[in-house]
Design a protein that fits this description.
Oligomer: single chain
Mean pLDDT: 91
Shape: elongated
Helix content: 40-55%
Order of helices and strands: EHEHEEEHEHEHEEEEHEHHEE
Strand content: 15-25%
Structural class: alpha/beta
Strand order of the largest sheet: 2-1-3-6-7
Length: 223
């Protein structure tokens, strides 16, 4: 199902939009604060985000820049009362894919969502992330706070495996079997330790990459 995160502090507008889009077959989650939205993004990416400009704990433009620093292709539509041409230009410059000015017709918003999703398809599906780390499976690239981090093929596979199992401990034995033994490269346990150290150094010791002593490793969002 197509999931939409709606970052909006006006309860009436949020409810009307959510109810309408739910009837069209979308799953809509409403976030009245940017902090709540950021926490949700860290857990699971939506298919598309609707973002109001003026929020009680920040601006939609800053939030959109944050999205773009982690997920460059995730569809974002601004929904705002700010209809001045300079505001619209600023919205696009800050990373929005489309810009809808309040008040608006729900049918028009729906049409714009459909058009944007036709262009982007399931952009969220190609990303894996944890904390400041984002991995683009399609391009096989890794980013930290929006800056690309070059990794070796083995380091990339190690990070990919951990991100695919985010929230679960992956044992050292299973990592050795999946990443090395499956290719016929039988290595000792120390190889994993050395590779993990290099990976952590390149990612600047990310807090979300945990060591489970004597067991393995786990990617986990930090509070």
């Amino acid at each position: 199902m197509t999931t939409i995160y709606y970052i909006e502090d006006d309860e009436n507008i949020a409810r009307l939009v959510s109810e309408y889009l739910n009837r069209q077959g979308y799953s809509v989650s409403i976030f009245p604060t940017i902090a709540g939205a950021r926490e949700a993004f860290a857990g699971k990416l939506p298919t598309l985000a609707l973002v109001d400009w003026n929020m009680p704990d920040g601006t939609g433009s800053a939030f959109c820049r944050w999205i773009r620093s982690h997920w460059k292709d995730l569809p974002v539509i601004f929904i705002t009362v700010r209809g001045d041409s300079r505001d619209i230009v600023s919205g696009f410059q800050n990373g929005a894919d489309d810009y809808v000015v309040k008040p608006f017709e729900l049918e028009v918003l729906h049409s714009r969502i459909q058009a944007l999703l036709r262009r982007t398809r399931d952009a969220a599906g190609k990303y894996l992330s944890c904390g400041e780390i984002s991995l683009d499976r399609e391009k096989m690239q890794v980013y930290r706070n929006g800056a690309e981090v070059p990794l070796s093929p083995i380091e990339y596979q190690l990070l990919l495996t951990l991100l695919e199992n985010k929230g679960r401990t992956v044992t050292r034995q299973s990592l050795l079997e999946k990443i090395w033994d499956s290719s016929g490269n039988f290595v000792n346990d120390n190889t994993l330790t050395v590779t993990m150290k290099r990976l952590r150094d390149k990612l600047l010791q990310p807090a979300c990459l945990k060591t489970v002593r004597s067991v393995g490793y786990r990617m986990e969002e930090t509070p």
